[in-house]
Write a structure and sequence with these properties.
- It is a single chain.
- The chain is α+β, with helices and mostly antiparallel strands.
- It has six domains: 41 residues, no CATH class; 93 residues, DNA polymerase, domain 1 (Orthogonal Bundle); 91 residues, no CATH class; 157 residues, DNA polymerase, domain 1 (Orthogonal Bundle); 111 residues, Nucleic acid-binding proteins (OB fold (Dihydrolipoamide Acetyltransferase, E2P)); 79 residues, no CATH class.
- The chain contains 27 helices and 17 strands.
- The strands form five sheets. Strands 10-9-8-11-12 form a five-stranded antiparallel β-sheet.
Length: 671
Amino acid sequence: MQLEGMVRQSGTHAAGVVIADRDLTDYLPLTRDDTGAVMTQFAMGAVGDIGLLKMDFLGLKTLTVIQDCLALVEKTTGKKMTPEEIPLDDPKTFALLNRAENVGVFQVESPGMRRTCAIFDLKGIGDLIALIALYRPGPMDLIDEYVKRKRGKSQFTYEHPLLEKISAETYGVLIYQEQVMAAARVLAGYSLGQADLLRRAMGKKKPEEMAKQRETFVLGCAKTNEIPRSQAVRIFELLEKFAGYGFNKSHSAAYAVLSCQTAYLKANYPTEYMASLLSHELDNTDKIALFTAEAQNMGIVIQPPSVNHSENKFTVKPNRILFGLGAIKNVGGACVEAILQARKEGGKFVSVEDFCTRMDYKAMNKKAVESLIRCGAFDEISPNRAWLSTKVEGALALAASASRDKERGQGTLFGLMEEAGPGAKKGVEQAPKDFPDWPKRDQLKAEKELLGFYVTGHPADEFEADLRAFRTLNLGEPEEMQSGTAARLAGVVTAVEVRLTQKDKKPYARVMLEDKTGRMEVMIFADLYRDAGTALKVGTPLVVGGSVDTDAEERVRLRTSECITLEAAMAKLVTHVYLLPTKEDLAGEKMAKVKEMVEAHSGDVPVRLELEVEGKKVLMEAGSQMRIRPTLAGIGKLRGLLGPDQVKLAVQSIELPKPRWPARRGQPAGL
């Protein structure tokens, strides 16, 4: 039996539809796939060869995002608008794109695309169409030249005067398939059909077909415009080069319209747009984290979820977005619907017991209720989450009993209370004053796990005054990091992934480091991991230093040469401790207490006083006896006494190790 050349398997195009003028069985055989859907037995190439029309019909979530955003705009402002009425020439839209504030904007939100927008000088929809066509493998190499020509910094000529009319809008760069087809028609007299065949041939790069097309084109140029053979060959080669990656302009234009519409909504109705975006990512915690961070960067307040106020989706208030219950991890759709129904029928919940007994018991479980408590959705009832969590088992037991009695047709105390109306419910219960809540760090960890972002604070908050002394750049400002320069970052570890090197199986780590401005993945290579590995735990404040670099996708990375905990950095890198006492501090008893604290942590680091004398700042050495051993605990006590901003640390600057090998030509040393 011969196997070679036989069909191995059949596949289905993700969005392909075949259209004919009568029954498809008049043209080709049909079958069904594993799901029962009808499909052709001919492959896609053969379907086109016999003259049937193939179309791709793609569903796009962005269309629904736009529609829902416009509904929110109407609800909050009273202004009714259709997508077609969104202007494509709004100055605020293109100002936003030129500032590269594109997170959440269709088709232009990747880091590379944002950087390109910043240099592209977008002035209208035409520029956006060109950008989307250029930003793909192949034509991407032309972006710099295109921008130079656009700004008049690069002179260029046309291979033939007739090409100017065709490519003037793109500054002599042929970036659309339609331009290649127009050149064939104008220069060589091709018909529309012949020009399309040329486009296909150039795209597929079949040598024998290209040879035929080349001769046809050269003869056509001579006959139509008396273009010499040598020049016609050069023009054909130019068209061939661009046609290999030319993009369909109508396709790019359709994408650009959506990009423009979403950018308009973000620029003019930011709260409504971000709420709509978030509502369409309820099951994607990473996207929720990205868009909530962007909203906060835009000055929009993200309010934590609430069992008494939140809806399923994210809802809008003036410059505020209320977190949707549907985006909380472990809380399913049925549970959310039951919450909304119970709230509609009986008003706000006043306790965990009230919540559980009024809910449809089959729609909830222990994990869902605990998740609501851990993420802060019950904080309005009581801010003590630890105490609330102790009430869950008892409340669920009551709810289970009430549910069973209801199914049997028996009355219960809770049933009588419900019949008496909401006013018969017990008042809000308060946690005992001496009942300890969970540590703030654990609360924040739960918020990040269940919501995708921190609501009531940040893990770096308790260390921020000390971390600030060591960092030279914020993690959320990668655009400030210049490749090849030294940088020191400081934040809190929020994720650690340990791997082994392929060659010698030595452990190294990928560490996610966060501060209040953003986060960055940092590589801790094997030589550093050997010394710092045991300290790389979630929640650890960390100081890392190295040289700034960019990866293949031009994302900023740090080539780490220094990795120590904040505690170790205090001992190793602090050169001076500065105290900034006020006049009241100097006149009172605080300085005596300062001296006691310094003596209790005696060491080798000098302490200096920064005083204000007659309106001028004066530095004074505190004396040889006033030397300290900096620790988190000791510096923390000083801050607690004088104030968090009244104690400052001077630290050693970072020094990059010398490269082991000479730098490659054109690349800075150290990279």
